[in-house]
Amino acid sequence: MESAAAAMRRASSQASLADPDDFDLTRLLNHKPRINVERQRSFDDRSLSELSLSGAGAGGRGGWGAGGYGAAGAESYESMYSPGGGLRSYCGTPASSARLSFEPHPLVGEAWDALRRSLVSFRGQPLGTIAAVDHSAGEVLNYDQVFVRDFVPSALAFLMNGEPEVVRNFLVKTLLLQGWEKRIDRFKLGEGAMPASFKVLKDPKRGVDKLVADFGESAIGRVAPVDSGFWWIIILRAYTKSTGDMTLAEAPMCQKGIRLIMNQCLAEGFDTFPTLLCADGCCMIDRRMGVYGYPIEIQALFFMALRCALLMLRPDAEGKEMMERIVTRLAALSYHVRSYFWVDFQQLNDIYRYKTEEYSHTAVNKFNVNPESIPDWLLDFMPTRGGYFVGNVSPARMDFRWFALGNCVAILASLATPDQAAAIMDLVEERWEELVGEMPVKICYPAIEGHEWQTVTGCDPKNTRWSYHNGGSWPVLLWLLTAACIKTGRLKIARRAIELAEARLARDGWPEYYDGKLGRYVGKQARKFQTWSIAGYLVAKMMLEDPSHLGMISLEEDKAMKPVLRRSASWTV
Questions:
Q1: Which of 12, 139, 414, 530 is the 20 to 30 Å CA partner of 361?
Q2: Which residues form a coiled coil (predicted)?
Q3: Is 557:68 a contact under the CB 8 Å cutoff?
């Protein structure tokens, strides 16, 4: 996550916001929110089905009832009103602790203090959290910027604690940045592109703050962040779900912003798959790591953003047309990922026996994957109980690596079926040492090394084996694992992971990542007091203490979305 400071000052994205933008921001922020709790409670009619906690405390799997998760009649976490919007915590005491009347873990207060130190303001308004507050580090690089993806756990923490102002400000300001002209050299990026990050600069001449945004022109490899727009939509839905404030999502500028993001992703091209084609380094793994093509992280976020957009778009002339396109894509995308990205013991055995060079619609091996490409580690790694979505599927290529973020988001968005979600959690339990180890959670497994590392990463000195994105352990992923555990009723897994993190995180100075097969060592280039490590812990802790918070970030499987599978037009009898 580095970029040259000088490059950030390029004229293409340096201009301060124009007066009309400032007027819009002030008008939106000063406008009294219209709170509609009744609508908020039913904001997701297609929300998480009943999820029972009975037996979950002991780590048992909740039974899959005919109506969805858990016992029939139990109240859904998803449809419950998230109480964060009604309470605000002061003096570092989390609102959830005050509401539920228990003594918080000593680490919680320390984490809140650290999170608040990362806040940055723009013209007197809290706007976001910078990536890290590590005063021991020599060169700041771009860790003093507000990254869209890094802000996600911070946003959730503040929402859960009854402090939505900074989240609202962030959503509005990044939406205004979307309207900037975005150029890399002589090429103009699409209108829907959201920035990877932005920085607040003091203008000594005018005596006011201004923003410098990075849309990829300063990033390593000059790759635009595909995930930024998806995360923005997900945060907007979380804000609406938490506060009951519909005015922001329904504002014309927000409706337009959602449509621009969706239009850029749904544009027709030469694709034969409903998945989104991406360059390497376009998401959390923002360096060359062989995730080009159709990475599961992007497909899961894409799916979740589509569903969130569908819930928030107004059914007017423009919105209705977009909603129809979204519904069509959701049906195709869910079928494709559930069918072709999924691997368990039985599916692996089927791939192992695949024939190649099959032609026509009768082909079983639709992507012409050679069984010899199955890595040796997978044959021993795959348990008889469990499964997961592989990292990438494209013609003649399956990346069998496990990627934590994509699988957890697939559970939360209900891209994974209930059975698949349960199998993913089974895999985490069965392969705890490999996927969690001594510090949750492995960003991917296994690491690549030797000649493969040379060719895939280009001999990247930061992504050496079991380090950084190449099999490193990232504490920020704790909140995603915890959310997935709550949704699947596997609270024992979440508690065990949080206890592991609590044993070391504060003592080690809240590092960005850990190295080694088990995640035992603080990362060789890891920044200390990494904001999303801090916020990820807080979100995981608050969700476990009050599972109703899950409703901000989880979606139930939409029964109406399931497509009626028909033979294609090319099928002949």
A1: 414
A2: none
A3: yes
